[in-house]
Write a structure and sequence with these properties.
Radius of gyration: 25 Å
CATH class: Alpha Beta
Helix content: 25-40%
Number of strands: 18
Distance between the termini: 45 Å
CATH topology: Alkaline Phosphatase, subunit A
Strand order of the largest sheet: 7-6-8-1-9-13-5-14
Shape: globular
Structural class: alpha/beta
Oligomer: single chain
Length: 481
């Protein structure tokens, strides 16, 4: 464990014979709130910081923009996280053989019946991409999308393992989120906003692990807005502003903390539990002035609000999330995640998929349109997908179980080909047989699009150089524009 030694400081006694007490940073934090209760919260945050050793190159500012390894194709990411695993067989992966064999015994288990998709598929755009009737608006964007139909994973076919693995690359160990790695590698453009924001994250699956920085400095964790069970209208961020002290007095407190911090750093001493937390305090102070303005969608035109489905019962919540994602992207946030967690259709496949698709189809299509019209799509990588796919057979006539052998995700925007389909599953949509791409490949390709070499983006911790892709990962250059 990294330890810090402090050089004793000598002082002359006061006239009453009592030695004056040295005011440390921790002492100051203890006195900032009544009875030191704020220090209790700070202690918890420091523990979460995992005793990180901050690299010398990051000491001046953890969030300042940094040069990528090579010229990037995109500069930011919007991840549309569809937790619960959307059924690729009913959305994007058209399988005539599966439909023809509907009701027959399953390939691997005769007690399970083949479930042909009950939904109609059509080809769309000049690319002729197959999209089901459930996504009429996304279908219109077919020529903007790169479909990744060879996705697979060796992670367990369980949400609590696969959802974190999709984000961090590991289904077992606590590792930094891909958003944290992106922020660590590139910094962020707007110093008054977090560089990694997760809107209504799926905290019920894997807890906060998919959105945290693990052993990276805590400032690289996601700033979470609400959770998946809270209506977006109630995810109020207005309380970020501390109305008790004035902005001037808060600035004075932080300046004093930073002055002591810099004095300590000059001695070559570094408290790894504290550095990221102090940086987080700085960011929180800056956010007070900008976050309420960025999240105020009342400034948008009526046409824009309606395009996202805001004001309509089924699309209002996710529409607001997608609009916030565009506003955060426009304001300079590096990595934004939007989550919709109602895709786990072991039963009620028809009614459940209809509901989830109605909630997300229009907002996602509107986001792509909005980004393109504002000139943001050309340097924004949009990623859509869940942690795994669904089975081609089931013991129930109206449901699909988990399948990690093959499924579909898609990308759009900066860096990827338009109207392109990459990879494929077999005739029943079970196994990925072409363009096979696992989580590490996905992460390596995403980092490459942002100008980062996944083998060089490392962080030394516990005597080892860690990276998002662990010891594997292949950049799939076939999808690159």
């Amino acid at each position: 464990m990294h330890t810090i030694s402090h050089t004793p400081v000598s002082h002359s006694p006061r006239c009453d014979g009592v030695m004056p007490r040295v005011c440390t940073r921790r002492d100051l934090l203890k006195t900032l709130t009544t009875a030191g209760f704020g220090y209790l919260a700070f202690a918890g945050l420091a523990t979460q910081a995992a005793k990180t050793v901050v690299e010398p190159s990051l000491k001046k500012s953890l969030l300042l923009p940094r040069q990528p390894h090579f010229k990037p194709r995109a500069s930011r990411v919007i991840f549309l996280g569809m937790e619960g695993a959307p059924s690729h067989l009913d959305l994007f992966d058209y399988k005539p053989k599966l439909i023809a064999d509907d009701g027959k015994p399953g390939r691997d288990n005769e007690e399970r019946a083949v479930i042909g998709s009950p939904f109609q598929f059509k080809q769309h755009g000049q690319s002729g991409a197959w999209v089901s009737e459930l996504f009429p608006n996304i279908a219109k964007k077919a020529d903007e999308l790169t479909f990744l139909k060879g996705m697979f994973t060796k992670a367990p076919a369980l949400h609590p393992q696969a959802w974190p693995a999709l984000h961090t690359g590991s289904p077992v160990f606590v590792r930094p989120s891909m958003g944290s790695w992106v922020l660590y590698g590139l910094g962020t453009v707007n110093q008054n906003l977090p560089g990694f924001i997760s809107i209504k994250p799926a905290l019920a699956i894997g807890g906060g692990q998919p959105y945290e920085s693990a052993f990276l400095p805590s400032v690289f964790s996601a700033t979470r807005i609400g959770d998946s069970k809270t209506p977006i209208q109630k995810c109020d961020v207005s309380n970020i502003a501390n109305r008790a002290p004035t902005a001037h007095s808060q600035r004075a407190q932080l300046d004093f903390i930073q002055a002591q911090n810099q004095d300590l750093l000059k001695t070559g001493q570094l408290d790894p539990q504290v550095e990221g937390v102090i940086e987080s305090y700085e960011l929180a102070f800056k956010m007070q002035g900008e976050v309420p303005d960025v999240t105020d969608i009342s400034k948008e035109s009526r046409a824009t609000l309606e395009s996202y489905g805001i004001g309509q019962e089924e699309t209002d919540d996710f529409g607001r999330q997608c609009l916030l994602a565009r506003r955060f992207a426009e304001a300079g946030v590096r990595f934004i995640e939007v989550c919709y967690d109602d895709w786990d259709h072991h039963g009620q496949l028809v009614s459940g998929l209809k509901k989830s698709c109605r909630a997300t189809d229009q907002p996602v299509a509107a986001l792509l349109t909005d980004l393109k019209e504002r000139g943001l799509l050309e340097d924004t990588l949009v990623l859509w997908g869940g942690e795994f796919g669904r089975t081609s057979d089931s013991p129930k006539p109206d449901g699909r179980d988990h399948s990690t052998k093959g499924w579909t995700m898609w990308m759009a925007g900066g860096g990827v080909k338009k109207g392109f389909t990459y990879g494929a599953t077999d005739d029943y949509g079970i196994d990925a047989v072409e363009g096979r791409m696992d989580y590490h490949d996905l992460h390596a390709t995403l980092l490459h699009i942002l100008g980062l070499d996944h083998e060089k983006l490392t962080y030394r911790y516990g005597g080892r150089d860690f990276r998002l892709t662990d010891v594997s990962g292949e950049v799939h250059k076939s999808i690159l524009a």
